[in-house]
Amino acid sequence: MKRGRMPKLVESLRGYNLKTFLGDLIAGLTVGLVALPLAMAFAISSGVPPQAGLYTAVVAGFLISALGGSKTQIGGPTGAFVVIVFGIVAQHGVNGLLVCTVMAGVMLVVLGLTGLGSAVQFIPRPVVVGFTNGIAVLIASTQIKDFFGLRIENVPGDFLGRMNAIVTHAYTINLTTTSLAVGALAVVIVCMRFFKKVPGSIAALLLGTGVVVAFGIPVETIGTRFGGIPSGLPAVTVPQFQLDMIPALLSPALTVALLGAIESLMSAVVADRMSNDKHNPNVELVAQGIANIAAPFVGGIPATGAIARTATNVRSGAKTPVAGIIHALTLLAVLLFAAPLARHIPLAVLSAILMVVAYNMGEWKEIPKLLKMSWATIAVWFVTFALTVFADLTIAVQVGIVLAALLFIRKVAKTTTVEKVTKEYVEDGRLHVLQDKHIPDYVTVVRIHGPFLFGTAEKLSVITDHIEELTPVVILRLRNMTAIDATGLLALEDLADKLHAAGRHLILCGARPQPAKLMRQAEFEQHVGRENVCPHFSAALERAKFVYEKPADSKVSDGVEA
Q1: Measured distance CA(475)–CA(444) in Å, rounded
Q2: How many CB atoms lie within 10 A of CB 152?
Q3: Are the beta carbons of 134 and 393 closer than 8 angstroms?
Q4: Other CB atoms closer than 10 Å to residue 544's CB: what's the count?
Q5: What percent of the chain clears pLDDT 90, i.e. is strictly above it?
Q6: Does residue 77 contact residue 56 with C-beta atoms inside 8 Å?
Q7: For residue 556, is pLDDT > 60?
Q8: 242: which residues sit within 8 A by CB, 6+ positions away?
Q9: Of 98, 304, 396, 517, which cross-links 239 as Cys (Cβ 3.0–4.6 Å)?
Q10: Dmax of the chain from CA atoms?
Q11: Distance CA 471, CA 554 (A)
Q12: Three-state SS at 455
């Protein structure tokens, strides 16, 4: 196997020692316990028994860590799939879901093997934020029934129908169930705010279950609804595959594959930032694909990289994929030795945990940023969000991407200009050219040439991957950057933050009208300082000399507060 195709586990085992193993062991046990309530909650919300989530976390979690392209990625069932899986089960049954998951897994393997893993970057930020916001709203809406103990026989699958059923049955609220759910929610929030080393979901699960068992509180539990969780290894079953199922399942399978690719690569990026590593997107997608092919054979549901569990893994001291493998083995041990205890877990507690998950995955902080962008960017976000909530996730992603592609074409077309060359134009150009200017040794000049839109933002890796090799001052020349969008702007913000964290100064110069206007609207100067956004290259050199030569004690505040 080529080096570029090798799983991170192979690389990590070179020089592996006891100290590293102990760090992985603690992290794996911790994230395994964190994954326990989440795996069951995601399965229940998806319309399948809780053990399906646990089986997925064990099998898919093991394969993603063993074969993946990220050192600290944790795989398993996630909130991103809840809505789409619920719809597939309602329309095609559990067997249809299993076949659909296998089809999505094959698509992911093909994406990885053909090197198209990096193509996910061509999905613009407004689309990703739009359907992430929408999924969060939908997940929260599915938990209202169990959170308040409402007596609703059949909860509708669509958002408006579900909300109508909730409103018309609001009088059936169970105050005991609601009090338990509110208490569990409070425990999770308190742990998140004041006891960050304590997994809030586990604390809520243990306390909530303990209270119910100790005082015999009459609330709905996993046992009363599902009869508990089978103990021991899952039975291997082959999904019943029929050719006439392909046309009906092709669209949802494509959505599952797309969501899995986006979620896993976003999670891998989070892992990279936290662990100072760089994942291999194509190897990661192959592993995700294999995991989704294997999981249905034990009755599992779709799996992908889990951002919150991955972050917990890194914060707990994980260094290699061994931690992810231990996480899967921890859940397997629960299945083998503690499954009967799960029957006492209250559904109200799981709904409270998922409410927090929905809030955390919503990326709500991105909305104010997007609202500062152009009307077109806002429209793409809003349409994607609205279609996700009120129509269908598959339609939302497809329409969002088509809209973004049309706007991409529009922006590129607007970068073409025809104008007469005047004396003023020539004289103005002298301030921007590099050829007649001395560039000091403490300055690195980087330029962006052409439109800097979604699909091209990843090219900044030529800087971000080599930050430690850069000089104290970096000048980013934007004279030939003809256009920028929300994804490109986010990449520039990330670059500025990384350079400042590494003790470097970033100066931008020569931005053309469209990029300059969007950067002003988004208040980009907050990331570099207003004085570090210069009109031309000559001014940027003067600014570079000033920040390099000024006293060290005054450099601390440079860039961010201005």
Answers
A1: 6
A2: 15
A3: yes
A4: 26
A5: 37
A6: yes
A7: no
A8: none
A9: 98
A10: 88
A11: 19
A12: coil
Residues in the chain, total: 562
| Token output for 135 | 């999924």
Residue 117's identity, in one-letter code, is G
Instruction: Identify the CA nearest to 453 among candidates 419, 402, 509, 409.
Output: 409
A 10 A CB-CB count for 121 gives 18
Q: Where are the beta strands (DSSP E) in 428-504?
A: 443-447, 473-477
Contacts of 320 (CB under 8 A, 6+ apart): 8, 9, 12, 13, 16, 20, 24, 71, 72
For residue 236, give the DSSP letter: P
Place of tokens 């007469």: 420
Given a contact cutoff of 8 angstroms between Cβ atoms, the answer to whether 560 and 530 are in contact is: no
In which element (H, E) is residue 508 found?
Answer: strand 505-509
Long-range contacts of 558-561 (CB under 8 A, 24+ apart): 558/505, 558/529, 558/532, 559/496, 559/500, 559/505, 559/506, 559/527, 559/528, 559/529, 559/532, 560/500, 560/526, 560/527, 560/528, 560/529, 561/529
Strands 75-76 and 304-305: antiparallel
Query: What Å distances lie between residue 415 and 104, 154, 304, 526, CA to CA?
Result: 38, 54, 38, 27
Distances in Å between the Cα of 516 and the Cα atoms of 356, 457, 513 are 38, 17, 5
Query: What's the pLDDT band for 418 if we cut at 50, 70, 90?
Result: low
Query: How does the average pLDDT of the chain come out, rounded?
Result: 85
Q: Are the C-beta atoms of 403 and 379 separated by less than 8 Å? A: yes
Reduce the DSSP state of residue 491 to 3 states and report it: helix
Nearest in space to 249 (alpha carbons), one of 398, 139, 98, 400: 98
Q: Which amino acid does the sequence have at 118?
A: S
Contact predicate 327/74, CB 8 Å: yes
Residue type, position 274, single letter:
M
Confidence of residue 455 (pLDDT cuts 50, 70, 90): low
The count of other CB atoms within 10 Å of the CB of residue 419 is 6
Q: Cα–Cα distance between 278 and 11 in angstroms, integer?
A: 13
Burial class, 462, CB count within 10 angstroms (exposed 0-12 / middle 13-18 / buried 19+): exposed
CB 561 within 8 A of CB 528: no
CB 464: neighbour CB atoms within 10 A? 15
**Percent of the chain, pLDDT > 70?**
91
Give CA–CA dist 386/420, Å, rounded.
Answer: 45
Helices (H), 195-304: 200-215, 222-226, 246-275, 281-294
The alpha carbons of the chain give a radius of gyration, in whole angstroms, of 26
H or E stretch covering 351: helix 347-361
| Number of helices and strands in the chain (H, E) | 23, 6
